[in-house]
Amino acid sequence: MSGVISLANLVTNTPSDPTVSTAQVSGAAPALDGEQRPRLALPVLTRSESVTELAEPHQVSRKFLYQPADQGEQALEHVFQSPAPMDDDALFYLPVPRAWLRQVVLGRVLLGHRSFRGVIACFRDLLDQPIALGTVHTIVQEAVVEARRINATQDLSRVRSGSHDERFQGHQPVLVGIDLDSTDCYLLALEAHRDAETWAIHR
Questions:
Q1: Left (φ > 0), alpha (ψ -120 to 50) or beta: where does 174 sit?
Q2: For residues 114 and 108, is the Cβ–Cβ distance under 8 A?
Q3: What is the per-residue pLDDT across 56-79, written as a single tens digit (0 to 9) for each?
Q4: Which residues, in sequence order, are bridge partners of residue 175?
Q5: Quick one: 163 exposed, middle or buried, by C-beta within 10 A (0-12, 13-18, 19+)?
Q6: Are 186 and 164 in contact (CB under 8 A)?
Q7: Which residue in 81, 1, 78, 77 sits closest to 42, CA to CA?
């Protein structure tokens, strides 16, 4: 049904071929309206009737019938032709609230191990969005506070054996503890010192 409608619109809106003379489009052809023309073209397009037998009773030429039929065939080919893949086609559209930008900052810092200035470069080059160094710092510090609150609620009574080590954030030591059974990190403390007294507090 959609093909018939498309063909009707095409035949009605397509200007006449300037190469077709008045003699070729003779008889009743000029009087045919937009509904009659596709009705004559469809049998030619589907090859359900002879063009000669169809042209004679309607007093039109064979070429007059072939023209809209050819146009209809081109329209059908265009409809069913598979579109070529385009690398620039949008796969989906993503809303970008402030919460999502906050996730991007934390993802770049925690997953991508990027510096704060690296996050700024990412926003500038990939998102075309400026972000201040102070904003990145605030987002990370807020996440630290929330992480500490969650960590404080964890039950560590099942930790039987652990491995301890020290990492450094700049020049400041970070005390690290790993559960050997589950490999979960149960200690990650930024301290001013890494002496035995400081370690004893966390053990």
A1: beta
A2: yes
A3: 776 777 777 777 777 777 777 777
A4: 166, 189
A5: exposed
A6: no
A7: 1
